[in-house]
Amino acid sequence: xxxxxxxxxxxxxxxxxxxxxxxxxxxxxxxxxxxxxxxxxxxxxxxxxxxxxxxxxxxxxxxxxxxxxxxxxxxxxxxxxxxxxxxxxxxxxxxxxxxxxxxxxxxxxxxxxxxxxxxxxxxxxxxxxxxxxxxxxxxxxxxxxxxxxxxxxxxxxxxxxxxxxxxxxxxxxxxxxxxxxxxxxxxxxxxxxxxxxxxxxxxxxxxxxxxxxxxxxxxxxxxxxxx
Length: 227
Ligand SMILES: NC(=O)CC[C@H](N)C(=O)O
Known about the structure:
InterPro entries: Class_I_gatase-like, CobQ_GATase1, GATase_3, Lipid_II_synth_GatD
GO molecular function: carbon-nitrogen ligase activity on lipid II; glutaminase activity
Keywords: Cell shape, Cell wall biogenesis/degradation, Glutamine amidotransferase, Hydrolase, Ligase, Peptidoglycan synthesis
Radius of gyration: 17 Å
GO biological process, one term: regulation of cell shape
Bound molecules: glutamine
EC number: 6.3.5.13, 3.5.1.2
C-alpha cells in the first residue's frame, strides 16, 4: 500500500514562533488532510538529531534577534543535509528570522553579527532608518499575496544570477526599502518576510502542497528501491 504519511520537520518551533508562523504548518496539514494524506510533524530543537533527507517539507519560522542568536549556534550541524536537500529541489519554506539565517549573516541593531548557514548568497543588515512593519501586498508567480511584515533586518542578494525574488512589491517593504521585492525563490526553496501567516494565501499554499507531494512520491519510491 502506498505510504500516505507526509513527514514535516519544523525547525526550532519552540524558539522561532514569535510571529504565529506555526499557522503555515497548520494550513499545509489541513490541505494535505483534505487530499487523504496524514502528516507527521517533528519539532526539531537544540541538540536534536535531524537529517533533512528523511522529510518531505522543511519549515523554519520567524523569531526575535535573541532567539536567532541561540538557534544560530545549533544550526551549523545541519548545514550539509539542509543544503543537499535544497539543492536537490526539495521544498522548504523559511519566514523572516528563519530566512535571514539561511544567508551569510544578519547584523542586528545591537551591532551583533549572527552567522547564518551560508547556504544562500544573501546577507541581512540593520539600518537605523526604519523597522519594516505593516501590511504587505505583492505579486508572485502564483498570483497576488497579502501578508504582514515586522522586521528590522534588510536583506540583500549577493548573487542575483542564482537568486530570484519571491514577489514584486505592491505595498510594504519586503526584503529592504530599496529593491521593491519580497523574499526569495531558489528551486523549491521559498524565503519570505511574510507573516499572517503567509499560507493563508491558498494560491501559495497549494503550490507548496504540490511540491511536497512530488517530493513524497520520490522519497518513498527511493525507500522501496533500497529495501
Ligand atoms: N519577524 C522576524 O522574524 C524578525 C526577524 C529579525 N529579528 C528582525 O527583526 O529582522
